[in-house]
Specification:
The protein has one helix and 30 strands. It has 370 residues and is mostly beta strands. The chain has a domain of 159 residues: Neuraminidase (6 Propeller), CATH 2.120.10. The strands form eight sheets. The protein has a five-stranded antiparallel β-sheet with strand order 1-2-30-29-28, with no helix packed on it. Strands 21, 22, 23, 24 and 25 form a five-stranded antiparallel β-sheet that branches. Strands 3-4-5-6 form a four-stranded antiparallel β-sheet, with no helix packed on it.
Length: 370
């Protein structure tokens, strides 16, 4: 039996409309303007209906400042971290119902990583050490990496790297993300501090670090090392993937920190790489407007989807365009359906849940796959 995606494609082709073209703002079957509740984003095989009111929650009882990251646990629950200390952690089912919330001590709540250890799930929470106060002023405090149970019981913290002699007095430690390797090693991205990737063992004991703002080898340079993930797409050769946002790129390293390659994504200030099967998904926090200049205070984000290293869809952005095999710059759609793509979570039906930074205190969006 054909599914809905096949029906939409056939209908579009019958009307002479390429299924690869974005259908933002109009119905591809009727050509009439599409109401916001039916807004379709994306390109080709990766098109999505935008669901703004997915999260069923009270902004008074469970206030939000910024939605930063989301993961799905072994029970199919969607767990989100934000920086409001009334409820740093919000837990939803896939219908958007709020199931639980906890956390009051992470004012810079930023990174959230699920660690599967045997039959149990654990969380790594990353407090970046920075947050916007109610007046829009950036405030700094000490960054923090914490391992917890799913209900918030703290197991251990990883302290400031100065305590083990790898940072000098006065060096900022502002961690943004954690990845957990196949043997349990912990990789911390100091994306708002010194731009190092710091590797610890499963107990939080230091092993090595690499990267930084100005290493001798430019391949190791990381400019805003915002995200870090383990790429298991080649199970015999897992890699550490670091987002170097200031370079509009991902950099791939071996598990012991040796440089492998760089994937450039022009005009995309990409957050962490999220892998699902052979695909890479990412929130794009910012892009430069066409003919304009970069401004981190502006709403210029979207989401990108890659099959392997090939960009195939940009929900909230312009269609991917390659010239002689080189990706050309992508831009946010003028209607700004997504303000900032800070993280993406994928469920088993290939729906996307998009966390947004600086998005007027709104909960995550759902992009329903069609």
């Amino acid at each position: 039996m054909p599914n809905r995606r096949d029906i939409l494609k056939k209908g579009a082709l019958a009307l002479g409309v390429s299924a690869a073209l974005p259908s933002f703002g109009f119905n591809i079957l009727t050509g009439r303007p599409r109401p916001e509740s039916e807004m379709i984003l994306g390109h080709g095989d990766y098109q999505y209906k935008l669901v703004r009111d997915w999260a069923q929650m009270s902004s008074t009882r469970n206030p939000i400042l910024n939605c930063h990251e989301m993961v799905m646990d072994s029970k199919g629950r969607l767990i989100m971290i934000g920086d409001h200390t009334d409820n740093n952690i919000l837990i939803f089912d896939k219908s958007g119902k709020l199931l639980d919330y906890w956390g009051t001590s992470f004012p810079g709540g930023h990174g959230l990583t699920l660690s599967k250890e045997g039959e149990e799930d654990f969380l790594f929470l990353t407090d970046s050490g920075w947050f916007l106060d109610r007046h829009g002023k950036m405030i700094h405090h000490n960054g923090r990496v914490t391992k917890t149970t799913l209900d918030g019981h703290v197991l251990f913290d990883i302290g400031h790297p100065q305590t083990i002699g790898i940072y000098e007095p006065g060096d900022y430690f502002c961690p943004t993300e954690v990845a957990v390797g196949p043997n349990g090693d912990i990789y911390v991205a100091d994306g708002y501090g010194m731009d190092y990737i710091i590797q610890y063992n499963s107990k939080g004991e230091y092993i090595r670090h690499w990267g930084g703002k100005n290493p001798e080898d430019p391949n190791y340079k990381l400019a805003n090392a915002h995200g870090v993930t383990i790429d298991y797409r080649d199970p015999d050769n897992p890699l550490v993937v670091c987002s170097s946002r200031g370079q509009n790129a991902y950099k791939f390293f071996t598990l012991d920190g040796k440089y492998v390659r760089t994937l450039k994504l022009p005009n995309m200030w990409v957050c962490r790489a999220v892998f699902d099967e052979q695909n890479l998904y990412a929130g794009v926090c910012w892009s430069k407007p066409e003919g304009g200049t970069f401004n981190w205070k502006e709403h210029t984000g979207f989401v990108t989807v890659l099959e392997g290293d090939q960009v195939v869809s940009n929900p909230g952005g312009t269609a991917p365009n390659y010239e002689d095999g080189v990706l050309l710059p992508t831009y946010q759609l003028p209607e700004k359906p997504i303000l900032h793509g800070h993280d993406v979570c994928i469920d088993e039906d290939k729906n996307l849940y998009v966390c947004q930074w600086n998005a007027n205190k709104t909960p995550p969006l759902k992009l329903e796959r069609i």
